[in-house]
Amino acid sequence: MKVKLILILPVLMSSFLSLAQEKEKSYQQQINGTKLNFSMQPVPGGEFLMGSKKGKPDEQPLHKVKISPFWMSTYEITWDLYEPFLYKDYETSHSITPVPANVDAVTRPTKPYLDMTFGMGKENHPALAMTHYNAIQYCKWLYARTGVFYRLPTEAEWEYACRAGSTSEYAFDDDAAKLADYAWFSKNSEGKTHAVGLKKANQWGLFDLYGNVAEWTYDQYDPGFYATLKGEKLIDPVAKPEKLYAHVIRGGSFESEAQDLRSAARLASDPIWKQLDPQIPKSNWWFPEAPFIGMRLVRPVNPPTKAVIDAYYDQPVIKDY
Fold first, then answer.
1. CA 295-144-247 angle, 5° bins
2. Mean pLDDT of the chain
3. What is the pLDDT of residue 279?
4. CATH topology assigned to domain 26-313
5. What is the pTM of this model?
6. Is the predicted pLDDT of residue 10 greater than 50, yes or no?
């Protein structure tokens, strides 16, 4: 019996290591039934110091957080990937097989009354101006298409991935003069978005975390949230959203100044971004005055149960005002 255990143990360990190594690889996610795909980068689990000692009050106190491993999309989600969700006729024309009933059943956004690219470009450019609700429904559509649970990053996951092991103001160091190598922002963007992936990636292979478009996180914005984190709350923390405003946006955009692109910098969504919307109540889907918001996806290594997934995607709509 002892001999058998000795023989079996290396096999079990080898299988375990193979599985762990597989989870650490980048991969291409095919959107089933289409020719579209997107890449995902592994983000190892670990601990980091979240926030800033010298930054704004809502970035304090600096606190240690533990994060579980996940994958994050290599690039911001582009119009190429977003439009099949946005327009049913577009999805049908770009599908190589009939659209499945479960995909067709996902509620789609109302068609915007403006050109939501704002003339900045579409091919390989980041999709933008969608609401927090809209972004989550896109994740639901992807789940119907792929069977894989994709979601928005939590605020802590976003900062952890952005820092990529660094403790400086930016992932590269504290020198804002180097930002132009990594980001499209106020000094070099010419007031518009650019195709994703043209700047340098961070240490974990993630592009455009700084600038281009700011990115939704799942969290409710609470300027004093960090001070409430103690004990178990420091493991994969999240401020669960229960109100329409405000939600946390990270990374800064093509309009942002260097200080708002720091790894710790936080931005809150604002109802003013719908001021031009003539509908009453306001649209649940679009921010016509926020051409600087986009999204990036996360896939946890250890996915939740089907019930938790359904609850994430099927939260009741809160009417805007």
1. 30
2. 92
3. 82
4. paralog of FGE (formylglycine-generating enzyme) (3.90.1580)
5. 0.92
6. no
